[in-house]
Design goal:
122 residues; alpha+beta; 16% strand
Length: 122
C-alpha cells in the first residue's frame, strides 16, 4: 500500500538537506516559509567545498541557489502549471566560512507569473 504524504515546507527543507548532492557539498536548507514565499539556504565553505583560491566553488554556489526559486514558484502556482527554469545568475562574494542565500518570492510575483502564462496560452 502506497501512502501519499503532503509535501510541507519543513519536509522539503529536511529532504533537500539530506539529498546526497547537497549533503556532501555543505549545503543546508534552513527553512522554507509556510506560505512558500521564501527559502533560506546556507553553504558551509570548508576544504571540500572551496576552490584553489579558497573561495566558495561556483558549482556549490549554483547548487545553493538554482533549484529553490523553481520550487517556491511551483508551490505558489500549484500543480496546474509547469515551472521550468532556463537560466541563472549569481553575483556576490563569500568572505566567511558560511554563505547564505535568501530566496524571497512574493504572492504578487506569483500572480504576475500566473497572469503572464495565461496571456501566452490564450
Amino acid at each position: 500500500m502506497i501512502v501519499s504524504m503532503r509535501m510541507t515546507p519543513r519536509r522539503l527543507a529536511i529532504g533537500m538537506t539530506l539529498w546526497i548532492p547537497n549533503l556532501f557539498s555543505g549545503i543546508r536548507v534552513k527553512r522554507f516559509s509556510p506560505d512558500w514565499t521564501s527559502a533560506t539556504v546556507e553553504l558551509h565553505v570548508n576544504a571540500f567545498t572551496r576552490n584553489y583560491v579558497k573561495t566558495a566553488f561556483g558549482g556549490s554556489m549554483s547548487a545553493m541557489t538554482d533549484p529553490y526559486f523553481f520550487m517556491l514558484v511551483r508551490h505558489q502556482l500549484g500543480r496546474d502549471h509547469i515551472v521550468w527554469d532556463t537560466r541563472g545568475e549569481i553575483a556576490g562574494r563569500c568572505t566567511s566560512a558560511r554563505s547564505a542565500a535568501r530566496h524571497p518570492r512574493t504572492d504578487r510575483h506569483a500572480a504576475r507569473l500566473a497572469a503572464s502564462v495565461q496571456r501566452t496560452t490564450s
